[in-house]
Amino acid sequence: MKELLLNRKFVFLWLAQAASGLGSTFATFALSWLVYEMTGSKMAMGSIWVSFMLPNILIQLFSGPYLDRWDRKKVMMFSEWSRAAAFLVLVMLISFNQLEAWHLFAVSVAVGLAQPIFYPAIMAYVADILPKEKLLKGNSILEGTGQVMMLLGPTFGGVLIAAFGTEPVLYILIISLGVSGVLLMMNPSSKKKQLRKRESWFTQFKEGLQFYRVYPVLFWVGMMMMMINFSSGAAQPMFLPFITDELHGTAFKYGLFTSAFSFGMVGGTILTGTLKEPRNRKRVMLGSLFISGVLFLGLAWTPFYWLALVISFGQGLFAIIFNINNTTLYQQRVPEHLRGRVFSVRILLAQAGIPFGAALGGLFAEVFSIPILFTVLGCLIACTTIVCWFNPIFERLNEKETVYIDVKKSPHIE
C-alpha cells in the first residue's frame, strides 16, 4: 500500500478515478430521476439506458483497436471533458426552462459515445504504470475509491434533489469530471510506449480477438458476463420505480439504496485487497455471481426497505469480488501491446447484453411487475453460473500465468 501511495503516477490516476466516479454516479442518478419525474414510465426508464448503451457498445467496437495506438492519457481526458460538456448543455436548458424529455435522451447518447473509451484506457494505463505483483492491490484501491465516491454520491444526490432540485447535482458532476481531466494531465503520456506499425481497424481488432484463442476461458467468461449483464441491464433502470412505487420510498431512500450497493463494493475491495490472490479463482468468481443471483430472489419479494438495503449491500460485495479478480486475470495475461484492444473486446462482450436487458426489462415490468421481473433475473443469474461451474473450460481459471504466444506466428494453437 505504501509503495503505491509513493507512486506519483498512481496517485494522480487514483484521484482522477475518484473524481470521475463521483461525476459518473451523479450523472446516472440525475438522468434517472429526471426521466422518471418527467415521464413516470418504466418503459422510458428502460429506453434511457438503451440510448446510453447502444452508442456505448458501438464505440467499444470501433475504438478498441485504436486504444493501443492513441495516447491513453489523452483518451481519458477527452472522455471526461466531453461528458462534462454534455451535462453543461443540460444545465443551460434547465436554467432557461427549455428542457424536454428528448433532450435527456440526447445527453444520454452523447455520454454513451464518450464514456466507453475511459474504462479500457484506464485499465491498460494501470498495467503500464504498476508491476504485475502490485496489480491486485492497485485495482483494489482504484475500485474501492471509485465505490466510495459511488457510496457518497447517491445519498448526497438524493439529499440535494429533495432539498434543491437536480441542478446542484449537475453542477457537482460537471466540476468532478472537469477536475478528473485536469488530474490526468499531470501524468506522463503513454504514447511513446504505443508506437508501432500502423494497421487497419480490422487487422487490429482481429488481433485482439485472436488473443482469446490462446485463453479461450476468457472468451467464455465474457459470454457468461453477457448473460449476467443482460439481467443487470434489465434490473438497473427498475431500481428507482422499485424503491418509489413498490417500497414507497423517496429520492433520499433511492439514493441510500444505491449507496448500499456501493458500500458493499467498498467492503469487497477491502476484503480482496487484504487477502492473497485466491488459489481457486473459479470458486471465488463463480461463487460470487451465484450468491448475487440468490440475493436477487430475496430482493424481488422483500416488503421491507431495510432488508432491501441489506440485500443491495450483499450484491455489491459479491459483484466487486468478481470484478477485481476478473480484471486482475486479464491484466496478468494480456501483453502490453494488446491491452487496449483486448480490454475493449472484453467490455464489448460483457456489455452486449445490457441494452437488450434494459429494453425488455422495462416492457416486462410494465406488463407483469417489478417483483416478477427480479425473480426471473435472479433465476437467470443463478442458472448461468451453475452451467458454467460444470463446464470444464472454467477449470482454466485456476491455471498459473503462462507466456502469451502470438497466434499470427503460431497458427497451430487452438
TrEMBL record:
Matching PANTHER family: INTEGRAL MEMBRANE EFFLUX PROTEIN-RELATED, MAJOR FACILITATOR SUPERFAMILY ASSOCIATED DOMAIN-CONTAINING PROTEIN
Protein name per the record: MFS family permease
Native source organism of the sequence: Lederbergia wuyishanensis
Major facilitator superfamily (MFS) profile domain ranges (all copies): 1-193, 217-414
Highest taxon listed in the record's lineage: Bacteria
Regions crossing the membrane: 12-36, 48-66, 78-96, 102-127, 148-164, 170-190, 211-231, 251-272, 284-301, 307-324, 345-364, 370-390
Entry membrane topology: Multi-pass membrane protein
Keywords carried by this UniProt record: Cell membrane, Membrane, Transmembrane, Transmembrane helix, Transport
UniProt subcellular location: Cell membrane
